[in-house]
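Chapter review: from sequence to fold.
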Amino acid sequence: MTETEGAGARMRLHVVLPDESAAMDVRTIADLAREAEELGYAGVWLPDHVLPPGPYGTPLPGYGGVYEALTTLSYIAAVTERITLGTSVLIAPLRDPLILARQTATLARLSGGRFVLGVGVGWQRYEFEAAGVDFGTRGARTDAALRLIRRLHSGLGGPYEDGFVAFDERAVFEPVPEEPVPFLIGGNSDAALRRAAEFGGYWQAVGLSPQEFAARRKDIAGGSEGSGVPGAPRVAAGSRTEWSSGDRPLADVRAEVAAWEAAGAEDLAVWFGPVEDGFGERMRALAEGVGVVEGRVTGAR
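The token string follows.
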């Protein structure tokens, strides 16, 4: 996902790893991540829920994130070499921003610069109430956290104050990554698109059709179409989808992949359903069916 863009480059294909079953051995996630790398996928991603008001994975798709995403990705970093690692998506306002800055900087070092921080503002009010975090300020908290992380990852210190965090010139932040960790902004709202335009990196739509996505991506200033604003950050627009049942034929999924690419998606992340119900088989079938090479599809037009 962090490759340099080239003219006419094909769409990148990613895997959203299964993290919905408390009975699943965490080594299964690592094995699937290694296999995704061997199959040529561009990236592997983990979801995040801190304290959902119901069982993980029930009913499907349910809540994801049994194994905490950042901790698990550090484990996956140690057993992979090339594949991008990321969160899809981490609920940023539920995390302490200073600790999140250090965790992500550390993960960037541990992975050799392969980590992308995917964030969302969250939607489950119960989690915020349980954590003692104001639900109404979750958007402002997310913006503040991203600005703080970008500042610290750029080697800048205090004095600093944003209404949520404050420190003076004595503050020392380490480790500073070689490059600031890139952000992926998840969500379809105007605020999500504005956030993606401000910070650059990646935008990930959820629940849109390819046609809806094509219309929405034009609203991102500095995005793939270009905003015409000098110095505007570039935004790679992509989406999430799923192939979660063996009842759906590969030909249909190939056609969907082609539709996403035709709609202008630069990245497509696929969740392949429950780990115990054919996740690995479908992951392998799609890689072969669309001809994934070095992270990008080569067929399925």
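Two observations follow directly from the output. Residues 113 and 178 are 8 Å apart (CA to CA). The first strand starts at residue 12 and ends at 16.
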